[in-house]
Design goal:
Length: 259
């Protein structure tokens, strides 16, 4: 992550991204951001919304409960463009709807698969509180059944971004398998992308990282176009002086592929 980007790189990428989004015309993409808890999903979503809107706000609640293992995001939350860009921008550009949710455990059991299925098919209402997944499976499945929501206007997921932290050394392969199988369940194939956050916390001489990165990419079947190693806006990387090209240019390039 040593590449340095300039203001002009940023301007060019903003233009390219706006062109791509504008070309979508009537169709708004729904992008689900999935991963284990604390990996940086909400921070990444806030960074993406900052990229699109030009302003950073902590819209998706971010937190650090590493020690306690607490989940910060507890509910499924959709961020349609109306929530993060101005009315004028909404009229011109088809910015995507981003879906934040609770972190999953690294498991591929029936509860995880059913939950993913409901999310991917837009069958869970906004603000649905998802179970932590450590309760009796049958009870949770019954609960999920009751939460299922059938509405013709529901927003099915069009793209999946699987997030993990680059600081982690354990690839969540079971969860990845479950996501891939539900994304390709026969009715339709949902393209899956992969993001490693916390790039700022990887040392140059970290010899374990390349192995972890390789495993993450191969588990998700990613080529270079569908993979991003990045740092999100956070306490260490603030946005006080306006857009930070080193944060935003890589994210913009990546979003240009998630089309
Ligand atoms: N240094 C650094 N910190 C980050 C980065 N991304 C996220 N963080 C921090 O990591 C912690 C967890 O981030 P969140 O975005 O809340 O993670 P999450 O996956 O949404 O967590 P849950 O909602 O609990 O599942 C917070 O303290 C963030 O500030 C990053 O790229 N670099
Ligand atoms: Mg979160």
């Amino acid at each position: 992550m040593n590449t340095e980007y300039s203001e002009s790189d940023l301007e060019l990428q903003i233009k390219l991204l706006q062109d791509t989004v504008q070309k979508r015309q009537n169709k708004t993409l729904t992008i689900a951001v999935i991963g284990q808890h604390g990996c940086g999903k909400s921070s990444f979503i806030n960074t993406v919304m900052a990229v699109f809107s030009g302003e950073y706000h902590e819209r998706a609640l971010v937190g650090n409960f590493e020690e306690e293992g607490e989940h910060v995001t507890r509910r499924l939350t959709r961020y349609p463009k109306e929530k993060y860009v101005t009315e004028d921008q909404c009229l011109i550009y088809q910015y995507p709807t981003l879906v934040d949710m609770m972190g999953f455990q690294n498991a591929g059991d029936d509860v995880v698969k059913k939950t993913l299925d409901l999310i991917f098919n837009g069958c869970l209402k906004d603000k649905t509180k998802l179970s932590k997944g450590n309760q009796n499976q049958r009870n949770v499945l019954e609960e999920l059944q009751q939460l299922t929501y059938n509405d013709e206007n529901h927003s099915k997921v069009d793209r999946i971004i699987f997030v993990a932290s680059a600081k982690s050394r354990e690839c969540p392969t079971e969860l990845i398998k479950a996501v891939r199988s539900q994304a390709m369940d026969g009715r339709r194939d949902i393209p899956v992308f992969g993001v490693l956050t916390h790039a700022d916390q990887i040392d140059e001489d970290d010899t374990d990282f390349p192995e972890f990165e390789k495993k993450f990419k191969s588990s998700l079947g990613l080529n270079a176009m569908r993979y991003l190693l990045c740092s999100s806006y956070c306490d260490e990387i603030s946005r006080e002086n306006g857009r930070n090209p080193n944060v935003e240019v890589p994210v913009m390039r990546f979003l240009n592929q998630v089309r």
